[in-house]
Prior knowledge:
Strand content: 15-25%
Order of helices and strands: HHHHEHEEEHHHEEEHEEEEH
Radius of gyration: 19 Å
Oligomer: single chain
Amino acid sequence: MRVGRKVTMTRFGKAMLVGLDHTPEAGIKPYTAQVVEGIRRDTRLGRLRHRLFYNYAYNYIFWLRTRSNDPARLRKLSRIERLLREPLARIGRTPRAAEFHEIDFHFAEKMLDPALVDRMATAMFAPQTFTDPYLPGFEHRGAPEATDHPFLYMDAQRLFEDPAFLEICSNPDLIAFCRETLGPRAVLSWAWAWISQPTGFAYQNQNLHRDCAEPLNFIRVFVPLSPIETRADGPLEMIPRTSSLREFYEVRRFHDEDLEPLKQAMGAGVVLADKGDVYFVNTFALHRGTPPTHRRGMLSLLVSIGPSHRTPSIRKLKLRELPEHLRPLIAKNRSFFRHLVG
């Protein structure tokens, strides 16, 4: 089998057939590379399933979702998706979910055991191979302190198989809020764990922007892996109540001066958090991660109804491969883990 790392310039709003050697994002191994490296078994049925699911997910994002970034159009499509996938569900019925839909944000204090967060941080800061989704071809092998590259992303499959990651995702309160917000078909669709390093300038998504290539109904769950006490720690900055704003929805990065009046009007701010705190964000609202003055780590989950274009790249785990103490929780929430465990 030929191995390729084809990173094509994606055209928003355009349908495209993608093959087994296509990667949805820099740093994510395509099917062919996963087979060669022993991550996946290669079978005819496996290839067929991957082709079908990947082409569906890819075009769901890059044809349907990104044809227009108009919030009014996206609201209509989001309602249609919910009607089709969970016709009897009502979202936002709890006070905290209703508030989230209004302001694009929810903060959960001490949702996680700090010792569990420490275990996740230890796994991420260990010497390994890091990539950067914004820089095709970039790899750093070794300890994070041995490079000054702005972002170091943990390998996705290594992350999905990490016991601390699986335990964080299994948290009943975390799953409950996702279902209150999105409905019973909420599912873990992707995740990122990355290290931000001090650079003295805003790199890529450290500029204000909207997340424009995610599923129609989604939320991002952020787990800081160390305390975020001041701006020096690189907190998330967001402008609440802007996910439905029909202004500043072009697919681009914005300068601070472009949005200063809006920030003042909507009460923009930064999110400070202790270890163990979790916050949920609609990142179609205007936001950015601010540049830190020292090295810090972050875990973020993508929870949605429809798939991400990255989702087919997940090599599903068998229940027996999971830590024994997590199996009952994950089995009880199979729908939430249906892209990760099967």
